[in-house]
Amino acid sequence: MSDGVLSLLAVALVAAGGICFYLGTGRQQWLDRSWTIRASGGGGIALLGLGWLVWCGEIRPATALFAVLTVIMAALILVPAAVALWAASRRGGA
After folding, report:
1. What share of the chain in percent tops pLDDT 90?
2. Are 21 and 34 in contact (CB under 8 A)?
3. Nearest to 52 by CA among 72, 37, 32
4. What whole-number distance in Å separates Cα of residue 13 and Cα of residue 47?
5. CB 57 within 8 A of CB 3
6. Is the model's pLDDT at 94 over the cut of 70?
7. What pLDDT shows up at residue 87?
8. Are the beta carbons of 44 and 24 closer than 8 angstroms?
9. Biggest alpha carbon distance in the chain?
10. What pLDDT shows up at residue 30?
11. How confident is the prediction for the chain on average, in pLDDT?
């Protein structure tokens, strides 16, 4: 596979891990009930690890760790903001 496809796969895996962490929080607004800590934490950690492993195939492990941390920070900011805007538009508040 090309490097671009592997990088995109790694970003998708890490972002999915961030979504798993978000779905485990008590104040998430995406689902009616939040996921259990075991499901959200375990799934999130597994997806972050897979994303890191995919990136380690292309770049050095330390650089891959930095990339994972950068993507997870962006996901943990953007996902709650996007879901809050979506929930407000469903209620007619925005």
Report:
1. 68
2. no
3. 72
4. 5
5. no
6. no
7. 84
8. yes
9. 47
10. 84
11. 91
